[in-house]
Amino acid sequence: MSEREEIAVVGAGLAGCLLACYLARRGYPVALYERRPDPRTGRVERGRSINLALSERGLDALRRIGLERQVMADALPMRGRMIHPVEGEPQFQSYSSGGDRAINSISRGALNNALLNAAAALPGVRVAFDHRLVGLDPANGEMTFETPQGKVSAAASVVLGADGAGSAVRGQLLGYGALTESLDFLDYGYKELTIPPLGGDFALDPGALHIWPRGTSMMIALPNPDRSFTCTLFWPTHGTASFASLGSPAAIERYFAIHYPDLIPLAPNLVDDYQHNPVGVLGTVRCTPWQVAGKVGLLGDAAHAIVPFYGQGANCAFEDVVELDRCLDECGDDWSAALPLYQRRRQANAEAIARMALANFVEMRDKVASPVFQTRKKIEHALERALPGRYASQYELVSFSTTPYAQVRRRVRRQYQVLGAVAAGAVAALAGAAIAFGRGRRR
Ligand code: FAD
């Protein structure tokens, strides 16, 4: 294919903007279509600010095109979890054995704007805001968009859907019978709350990701550069203990006073936030294939949205972009070979992180406060120090490496098997020693 043929990227979110940068670097003219107006001139929708934890995979993707330093200027490193019990002092748990590794809190809006600026500044990238894709013919790449001026058509030799969990590109392919999808929604939703600065400073330690594990509900808080924290409360959407169960300001105050008492003095707008911020849905999107005839492809949440409990959705979306770029390299920019190769390499990894993210929800809301979990973390850190390069925890491999997610799952399973065998051996040896000792004493 000639380098002059335009590639259409649908969705100027995190994956779409990064993808436009990578494609422009390869010499492609890129048309980036976004349904919203330019976010750099607009206001963030209430309760949808979402700050993200960006870790090694995302940073690696940014580093490869020289954007890491610029993006990280706005980021705040978090070196561990701060666990808030209902009563008593918060406890800090380091993410890494040396205490030096951090995931980074960054505003999704700021990150998106930085990537949009980078893409729009590249020669060959054209951004069309207020363009909502409503039609796509996968056979010839013809697209239809709704715009404030009415419907418009456009065509491209390759169309890449980076239009998020509710992807219209995926929906179009579904309509043509070109793919199958499954959507697994959790019965949990999320709501944003805010802890403003206290006396001009952070109200909590900004060097940690704060967690309030409460079994059936859970709250987390990430720091922002303006010294506020964005909290996200996860709770069932329906039922007797759920978002639907708190109607009045008194009920909201009572609930938080019982379950999140240390939040009350820190969140003066709690009731207002609770009553007016929307409840977002959480779920896992799976579909197959991720590409059709080398002409239409899916990346990021459009291909594989996951629940946010490992802080990996955006990191994983960025890895998709790096892998597609690598496949284009290896296939000499033959899209009909590169897109299937990209799917083969990424699908198992997306499935692996989807499963790990679901499992991490249980860990975060139920286990992080338990002494067993804390002892396990201490043992893992001790093993990492004693066996550098040979033992690494799942968290370390997911957040601080670019080891493919599927490989991480396999390696962690193997490590647990070995540890289990060693522990069983030690128990057997101890039992044998106890029996021998008992016999010795009876003689
Ligand atoms: P999106 O960011 O959703 O972008 C899609 C873009 O497509 C948007 O700009 C949208 O307007 C546009 N679009 C949609 N439909 C159309 C259309 N029809 N036509 C044109 N344009 C369209 N990830 C992390 O890595 N770390 C975290 O800590 C983390 N925390 C999270 C917390 C919460 C509560 C949630 C919900 C998610 C979190 N994530 C996190 C996940 C992360 O936000 C997503 O994985 C990431 O935004 C995916 O990027 P994307 O570009 O694929 O999709």
Proportion of residues in β-strands: 15-25%
What's the mean pLDDT score?
93
User: What is the number of E strands?
Assistant: 19
Structural class: alpha/beta
Oligomer: single chain
Into which percent range does the helicity of residues fall? 40-55%
| Cα radius of gyration in angstroms | 24 Å
CATH topology heading of the largest domain: FAD/NAD(P)-binding domain
Cα(first) to Cα(last) distance is 87 Å
Strand order of the largest sheet: 6-5-14-15-16-13-17
| CATH-defined superfamily of the largest domain | FAD/NAD(P)-binding domain
Low-confidence stretches: none
Bound molecules: flavin-adenine dinucleotide
Q: Which architecture of the largest domain per CATH?
A: 3-Layer(bba) Sandwich
Number of helices: 13
Shape: globular
Walkthrough of the structure:
By secondary structure, the protein is α/β, with parallel strands linked by helices. The chain folds into three domains: 7-73 and 106-183 and 283-361, FAD/NAD(P)-binding domain (3-Layer(bba) Sandwich); 185-281; 372-442. The chain is 41% helix and 23% strand. The chain has 13 helices and 19 strands. It has helices at residues 14-25, 56-63, 68-72, 108-120, 168-175, 249-259, 270-276, 301-304, 313-330, 335-367, 371-386, 394-400, 405-442; strands at residues 7-10, 30-33, 51-54, 76-78, 80-83, 91-94, 103-107, 125-128, 132-137, 142-147, 150-155, 158-161, 180-195, 208-213, 218-223, 229-236, 280-288, 291-292, 296-298. Strands 6-5-14-15-16-13-17 form a seven-stranded mixed beta sheet. A six-stranded mixed beta sheet has the order 8-2-1-12-19-18, sandwiched between helices. A three-stranded antiparallel beta sheet has the order 3-7-4. It is globular. The model has no long low-confidence stretch (mean pLDDT 93). Flavin-adenine dinucleotide (FAD) binds next to helix 1, strand 3, strand 9, helix 8 and helix 9. The site of flavin-adenine dinucleotide (FAD) has 34 residues, from helix 1, strand 3, strand 9, helix 8 and helix 9.
